[in-house]
Automatic annotation (TrEMBL):
A Pfam family of this chain: NTP_transferase
Gene: glgD
Xref: CDD domains: ADP_Glucose_PP, LbH_G1P_AT_C
Name of the molecule in the record: Glycogen biosynthesis protein GlgD
Superkingdom: Bacteria
Residue ranges occupied by any Nucleotidyl transferase domain in the UniProt entry: 19-231
PANTHER family hit by this protein: GLUCOSE-1-PHOSPHATE ADENYLYLTRANSFERASE-RELATED, GLYCOGEN BIOSYNTHESIS PROTEIN GLGD
Record keywords, A-Z: Glycogen biosynthesis
Amino acid sequence: MLKNTMGIINLHESHESFREITKHRPLAAIPFAGRYRLIDFVLSNFINSGITNVGILSAGNSRALSDHIRSGKEWDLARKRDGLFLLPSWQTGNVQGAFPNDLADFFSNLDYIKSSRQRFTLLSGSRAVCNINYEAAYNYHLAKEADITVLYKEYSIAEAKGLSEATMLETDSDGRVVDMEVCPVNNRSNKLSLEMVLLERQLLVDLIDASVSRGGTNFTRDCIMKNMENLKIYGFPFTGYLARIDSMQNYFDHSMKLLTPEIWQEIFFAHGSIYTKVKDEAPAKYQRDAMVKSSLVANGSVIAGKVENSVLFRGVKVHKDARITNSIVMQKGEIGPGAVIENVICDKDVKITAGKRLKGELNHPIVIEKGTVI
């Protein structure tokens, strides 16, 4: 277990491709899989690996995220010693661009990093949804006597060409990272960085201080890529299932893949359970004419219509003769009598009134913003 490792979740992640559902929330707070938020997965992976000191480097509007994580009790992080810390950002607005200015916020929270008692630090973003125990990566880091270890997922050459807004890396036969590219137009490598980095805490402090004092603004570029010749940087392969959420299309596709039992089982139970904010609601209620097939339906929902190949969040109401197919309906959504939606993503509090018909395409779902009434 990684008792001597602290975790830092870096929320400086570009979400220009999510404008419809990140207008009121950061990427980490995007609802996923019926009851969860993206940040739940990295928080759960940390605690399942024995990491009990976690800092969240916030960015932009983090109110929705603060409301979700609260004290960190659901992840056993409400502690007298260590626990969960929300590290404030001096910046406002949404994070944009391939190289966000995260070093300024690392530097402004340097006291937290310096005062922590753990020897190592594990940095992670929130867009890589997976179930992982970091102990194997930690042992690899020690065995290689590495300065920095970057976790990556290897794809086929064809799959890698379809990755967007990605950080790709290349390793030699010994696993040492010899090249990295951020958001290349044409991917020349098939190894995708999970944006998870393991290094000693003191080295992190030194890299932040040295980079900021030389005008650096981005951790990946100025602390890692510019030190590839000076530091021993190794790559550790992750072989489990990965849902990388980098666009609305990927969000839709990976949500639909959760309906496959094997994928759902791995992502929620492979190396420990995934935890989330507890809401005491009644189980989903299925009325006489309800028909539900191959779907995830969260608690608090009331189903009177037909639901197929869909993900319904907490408190969703599906009225009589309504039909939902290949769609995602987030919290407290309401599909009126006789309404039909197919290949649609409805954000929170969306109401589709009686008789309306909305149909997108599997490769281009319709996205309806929070609170919209149609």
